[in-house]
Amino acid sequence: MVANTSVTRVAGVLKRRIIIDIAAGFTTGCIAAFSWWHFYHQKRLHFREQWYVDYAKAKGAAADGSLDMEADSAGESLRQALLDIGGPKTLAIDSGLTAVVSALCPYSSLKDCGVSDVVTLTRETIRGNIVYVASGSPESVKLVCDNLQKSIANDGERILLVRPRTSPLVDLILDQHGLTAEVKVYDWPAFFMPGPVLSMGLSPTMPVNELVWQTAVALNALQAASNGPFSRVTGHGSAAKRVSELLQDLQGEHQASAVANGGFEYYFGSAFVGCDVDYLLLIDRQVDWVGALVFQLTYQGLLDEIYGVSPGQIVNGPDGKVKLEGELFNMIRDLNFGMVGQRLNSLARQLQTAYDKRHDAKSIDEIREFVAKLGDLQSTQIQLKQHTALAEAIMSYVQGNEFTACLEFQQSLVENELGTSEAVSQLQELIYRKIPVARAARLLCLVCLCRSGLKEKQLHTLYNDILRTYGYEHLQTLHDLENRGLLFTTTQTSYAQIARSFQLSNQNEKVSKVYAGYTPLSVRLVQAAVMAVRGDPMLLGEYFDNVQKSDHPKEAKLRKILLRNSGSHDKQVIMVMVIGGVTYAEAAAMRAAVPSDKELIVASTSVITGDRLVKTELSPAD
Predict the structure, then answer these.
(1) Residue 608 · residue 204 · CB < 8 Å
(2) Does the chain have fewer CB atoms within 10 Å around its N or its C terminus?
(3) Which 3 state secondary structure label does DSSP give 169?
(4) Which of these ranges, 166-170, 484-488, 579-583, has the smallest mean pLDDT?
């Protein structure tokens, strides 16, 4: 590009106002010329087109991994805080954040930063240098204060990392305890844990206002790490609506800051609306409690139901810790468990065939080629052995009388095959057989949801059965489940009508195979979003649809050039954010529901199971 003398002179005056951070290869001359063009945009259309092409190529390379980059950034910020304290130090982690830290910073990398010990944050005294990792909740910060007051007599430095960011409330609590001068406080912007589901790792029982705020802040941070705002935001439910509104407010604050700084982002940022994520779908968990409570039947879902999946691994498997990663696991994680054995068999035969090829290697080159593949074959063999052992353990579990009885009862409920009286009677029988209390509460919630509530007498009868069988300490549990809308008397909302309208029971669909014939409502909402179908008035909570438009309508043509030349936009990218928790099986069904010409990212405030959802209300003894 050749700029004439007058253009160069004007650009030199204006270039101080331009703030831009893009990939190498995009020259200062291009930036200056584009700034000049913004103010004199009546000329040189061919120059504008070429600038967008160059920008797309530069940003495309960085945009592909924006989600991974955010996770890497969170891990790096923790390591940097550890390095800021010289010598050995102790990392004290709030129990609710242990999984987040282990996902973002393996213990080996913590040791490299001088961490001598990793402990769960309690009120017990800790000696030496301490780095606290806590959430911004009052309970978590007060626990830090209690520990600080006991540890303050010991020499050492103290740092507090608040996830996702500090607040005036944190400062107030520290000030009330007289500890403001004793600890350095920093934000720790660790929002999403990487994995098949991008989880924020929040508690499902977190107050709704806090859940909404944390979700909006996380999504806003994701926009900042990407190439621009989500081009379209739709959703179902009151919490989803509030997240959308708050997200717009946060985006407005961000833009106002850019205006004040006179930066590039204000002048040109909206031209890149939707450059990474085209479509954000927000789903309030309350719109579909049933999808969270039904038993998961995928391989990863059953692992979570039986053993509990920490980020990227199970800790208490039949053979101890097993990492859930690699190509083999990715091939079977979303399969209905009935298909896993067949797939593992096929993989075992393929592996044996690959090993047998060593007998056919005659030349030096052929032997060298086999040896080069040997490491991968051995790694696959180890993974195959681990997952075969897990599959056998799962098979024993699902063939047990208790699980079979509960699953058959559930399937009859969701397929509307049981009348209310019959459903109550069968649930009573399961309670008398003393199935685990969490499972009994889970099935009771399903009965209420699938039968559109129970008569007051029926509900109280089941309450009495649970209290007599498992103990009266669970009275508060039942009360809490009522408050969350999981237990209730007869309501006007008809589950049977919703099930018919959305065809939740359809044996002939690919997506229904995930749940052996059932499709959660949350998955149907994803399908409806993909097909651009508006919300249904029968659903709990309102539907909204916000399309974010560029502030520069004349740049529509140039935006098309940007998208066409961006390697990250071969497919339309849709992100689903479930506020209140999602299961692995739901995520698998959502991915199966999206056509191959689109890419789906599933995110949530937490990964849950039906048992965990109700266990959060149970007493610690259970």
Answers:
(1) yes
(2) N
(3) helix
(4) 166-170
Average pLDDT rounded to a whole number, residues 326-353: 93
Class of domain 402-495: mainly alpha
Tell me the domain boundaries of the chain. Answer: 5-63, 84-187, 198-291+520-615, 299-399, 402-495
Beta-strand pair 598-604/572-579: parallel
Indicate whether 399 pLDDT > 90: yes
Q: Could you give the residue ranges of the DSSP H alpha helices within 357-508?
A: 364-398, 401-414, 420-432, 437-450, 456-470, 475-483, 495-501
- Looking at per-residue confidence, does 13 or 122 come out higher? 122
CB 573 within 8 A of CB 64: no
| H or E segment and range at residue 184 | strand 184-187
Whats the size of the chain, residue-wise? 622
Using the predicted structure, report yes or no on whether residue 153 has a pLDDT greater than 80: no
Angle between helices 584-593 and 521-530 (to 10 degrees): 30
441: buried, middle or exposed (CB in 10 Å: 19+, 13-18, 0-12)?
buried
Which of 403, 393, 400, 399 shows the shortest CA–CA distance to 295?
403
Q: Residue holding tokens 């000329």?
A: 43
- 92 three-state secondary structure: strand
Strand order in the sheet with 543-547: 198-199, 598-604, 572-579, 279-284, 232-236, 543-547
Domain 84-187 bears CATH identifier 3.40.50.2060: yes
- Lowest-pLDDT range, 259-268, 327-336, 599-608? 259-268
Closest alpha carbon to 396 in 310, 332, 337, 308: 337
Domain 299-399, architecture per CATH: Alpha-Beta Complex (3.90)
Token pair in block for residue 218: 């996380």
From residue 588, give the alpha-carbon distance in Å to each of 335, 366, 390, 560.
8, 40, 19, 32
By C-alpha distance, which of 516, 499, 520 is closest to 581?
A: 520
Query: Helix (H, G, I), strand (E, B), or coil: what is residue 125?
Result: coil
- Is domain 198-291+520-615 classified as CATH 1.20.58.1120? no
Provide the angle, in degrees to the nearest 10, between the axes of the packed helices 420-432 and 456-470.
10
* 502 vs 519: CA distance, rounded Å: 9
**Torsional sign, CA 329, 335, 340, 345:** negative
